[in-house]
Amino acid sequence: MAQQHLAFPFQGGKSAMTKFFKDSLDVPAELVKVKAAGTAVFKFTADGDGNIKKIIVYYADDANLAKPIIDALRKSNKKWIIPDGEKMHDFILPFSISFLAPATATDKVQKDFYNYYTNRKPIVSFDQVPLDMATLLPTITVNYSLK
Fold first, then answer.
1. Please, which residues have CB within 8 angstroms of residue 49's CB and are 6 or more apart in sequence?
2. Beta carbons within 8 Å of 52's beta carbon, 6+ residues apart
3. pTM of the full structure
4. 50 three-state secondary structure
5. CB neighbours of 12 closer than 8 A, spacing ≥ 6?
6. DSSP class of 103
7. d(C-alpha 31, C-alpha 37), whole Å
8. 3-state SS of the chain: helix, strand, coil percent to 5?
């Protein structure tokens, strides 16, 4: 049986989605200062007009990573395309956030990251996570400069 090709559910396609989130996700100065890095996985529901109706954090390496991602997701209203015949559709979107490491990491950069990593507060699920009819989207990778 031939594999069915699905249209990408973001206006402009995968590249447009990746660019949108890289441009729209503002990493707060306090996260840059502590050298925050990690992954967060979100499930959100879009309606027929492409508006986000519900956002759920499935997992985050640190709760502080969730806020800027949620803000960026809210900016994506009217950009989602749901499959024909559906009134709402669920999407699962992973994000990976990290800093652009200098060629040779100083002791301070290493210490700051170690301190961040050992003091982070993950968001995890302790029970089953029903996925229903959700679409898993490709991971958004955001790298920020330490300046």
1. 78
2. 44, 45, 46, 73, 74, 76, 77, 80
3. 0.84
4. coil
5. none
6. S
7. 8
8. 30, 30, 45
Please say whether the dihedral angle defined by the alpha carbons of residues 108, 114, 117 and 118, taken in this order, is positive or negative.
negative
Which tens digit of pLDDT belongs to each residue from 20-38?
Answer: 999 999 999 999 999 999 9
- Which tokens is 81 given? 């395309």
**142 contact partners, CB below 8 Å, separation of at least 6:** 21, 22, 25, 27, 95, 96, 97, 98
Domain ranges of the chain: 14-144
Q: What is the pLDDT of residues 107-138, one digit of tens each?
A: 888 899 999 999 999 998 777 666 667 778 88
Cα gap 66→8, rounded to integer Å: 24
pLDDT at site 55:
96
Give the bridge partners for 45, in sequence order: 54, 90
